[in-house]
């Protein structure tokens, strides 16, 4: 059933907005200097929604959640700050205890009813803030938490995350650490909570980098028209998000057909499918985003590995296995180049990275289901990326566990595509032909 925009907005109602900051004052003299890679991602945002049933949140009232955030944000106090600009125009983060935004809302549906609705990717935008940074930097929160209480007694937790703070791996570490704080607060172990918070107070404050040699613009980076202090890029192409599961049996079949890892195999199929749809303008350059195995868990940073692949031949006439091998073995890492380009002009220029080229995001190691409340994992996790360029994004992430027909527990993957709206119908047709999307 298709709902009007008015009917959609009425599904989630009774919004209450407040702010929550760290449990002790940092003051206003601390500054967190973001890196060139952070600044390159400043026009992108991550939107994640976690669904929990009533057992997981028993005794966890909205007021109690705010109390846990109070302690939690003392560990990551810089996420409560606000951006400013230096005399040269470079953005930096003023750690002034302004806080994260906390939104409370209600929904008269059950979680099961919500998850059975058509166009879930679109509907889930009602469960997480769509706010971006700006146009007034000094008044713009970087993190939004939205708690929506459902009729069944369950809850969704929406996390809106400014990508300039860190990549998806960092965002996951961040929210999963909050769940650990919840356990400590509910067990009345506030002393341990505060001790850990104070021990973490001064991490990640770094000096401004010095001058860096100029290089050519890396292919994974697209310079856009200046956005000023309203940090979202203009995109005249209407984009649409849709998601679908990759079952254990589908994964097994793909592994028998390809010698490459599952991520590269799936992306090769989609790359070729998009080439068929776009014809002359088919994407001969793609960008790949993967976890950095050297990253420090719990430290917020844009440390994911960004690489590119360029071809000079017809994608449609090329075997999918060859494309998968290219994605696996012939990538050019561009992190250093991106950092140098952005640092060279003090972060004043504006860029799009996701969707600058067709972008493949490997989130298999993002611990989406590691957010446990009172030993209960989420029933389902929805995710989206805001600020994607017109070339689109293909995202592979963990899915929920399920019980197979023999009573065993198996895991699935979730694939999410963010594409121009006029390509979605053809893309779904191609996915069905390749056995990735059910009829």
Automatic annotation (TrEMBL):
<dbReference type="Pfam" id="PF02458">
    <property type="entry name" value="Transferase"/>
</dbReference>
<feature type="region of interest" description="Disordered">
    <location>
        <begin position="195"/>
        <end position="217"/>
    </location>
</feature>
<comment type="similarity">
    <text>Belongs to the plant acyltransferase family.</text>
</comment>
<dbReference type="InterPro" id="IPR023213">
    <property type="entry name" value="CAT-like_dom_sf"/>
</dbReference>
<dbReference type="InterPro" id="IPR050317">
    <property type="entry name" value="Plant_Fungal_Acyltransferase"/>
</dbReference>
<protein>
    <submittedName>
        <fullName>Uncharacterized protein</fullName>
    </submittedName>
</protein>
<dbReference type="GO" id="GO:0016747">
    <property type="term" value="F:acyltransferase activity, transferring groups other than amino-acyl groups"/>
</dbReference>
